[in-house]
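Ticket 4471: requesting a sanity check on a complex prediction with NDP. Repro inputs:
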Amino acid sequence: MSAVLIIGAGAAGSVVAKKCAKNRHVFSRIHLASRTLSKCKAVQAECESEITVSQVDADNVAETVALIKEFKPDLVVNMALPYQDLPIMDACLETGVNYLDTANYEPKDEVNFHYGWQWAYEDRFRDKGILAVLGCGFDPGVTNIFCAYAQKELFDEIHTIDIIDCNAGDHGKAFATNFNPEINIREVTQRGKYWKDGKWIETDPLSINKMIDYPEVGPKNSYLIYHEELESIAKHFPHLKQARFWMTFSQQYITHLTVLQNVGMTRIDPIIYEGKEIVPLQFLKAVLPEPSSLADGYTGKTSIGCVIEGIKDGKQRKVLVYNVCDHEQSFKEVKAQAVSYTTGVPAATGAMMVLQGLWSGVGVRNVEQFDPTPFLDELAKQGLPWHVKELPVSAAGADPLAEAHNAAA
Ligand code: NDP
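Returned structure tokens:
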């Protein structure tokens, strides 16, 4: 029986709080704190069991330290924004409390997200005898754990990984992002990058695309983008020759994004407007729908998985490990859309792993460094069932996704 402090009462954080509140056999005390107290109270009112709430500015280490000292959690789950990762890790270090998040750190004034910022905390977390679990959402998160499962159970050597991420849902808005708009647009507009033969290959933003056939939702145009789990996967899978990340975007989304970029609305450098300094992207975020507001009436499904190819018992093998999640079902259960659900449920499941001692150790770890089995067993029980599909192996020299296209029915 353990206490968890969740920071961030947004779209995904609300799912974590509600899921923890459904699992009181693990979480004896639950506290939700965020920048806006009214959002915490709204989540509190919808939780199945009693949780406490308060206001915190997690950019301010002293405030978070005071909150931790008052609530005395065994684990802090960071569901705020990537900007808050380091200050919350600093507060955990000061108070000797374990840490878990779903997105790697990036500074506000520069698009430069990578694990180096947080891996640099390894010695300090180890010396303090505490654990930081990095990237425990869906992607990063479950996708890394699918790869760890494949390495443990399905392959002797993994050679290629293609993470394929499709949201085939419809929220009925002309343009909206499924998670925090500022973070989403920073991620999508940066240059693409993938891992090949021991080095990174850079591409122009959204310049490579391909039709991929996703389980239960069918063929969708998918774009190669850089996504943070590629960095830790390239580090932790020793036989890997290639790792890529693909995400679907509708033509309507791309058209809107292109216009917004062309008129300067996605800039992250400050401009002066009527004598006041504003950041265009932050202004844009303020006028776009909040991701949590998309949930009511969202239809369709997400379909996310890993196409993995390698060697088992001397023979070539290719599999797809995947989950499909329904927006309407997610809304019925916790009043969230599937992108928030698929982020929040793994974070709550990861918290269960740490608090039950099923994931343990000290230092800073990515999720693929833990035993995938108890996590995946629990994930299915918590509402995200997952499946393994055998695929025809690729012809010599062929793109692994050429075969996946017709096989992932
Ligand atoms: P939201 O914008 O809905 O929620 C973010 C919440 O954090 C808001 O409630 C916000 O407060 C709060 N917050 C922001 N700054 C602070 C601060 N300084 N102190 C305290 N609270 C703060 O975003 P999402 O829920 O969609 O995303 C949350 C996180 O999940 C992000 O880091 C995102 O990158 C990550 N994510 C990970 C995914 C994965 O699969 N791994 C997928 C999707 C998201 P306020 O309400 O006042 O703005």
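Notes from triage: The domain at 142-334+386-408 is CATH 3.30.360.10 (Dihydrodipicolinate Reductase; domain 2). Leaving this open until the requester confirms.
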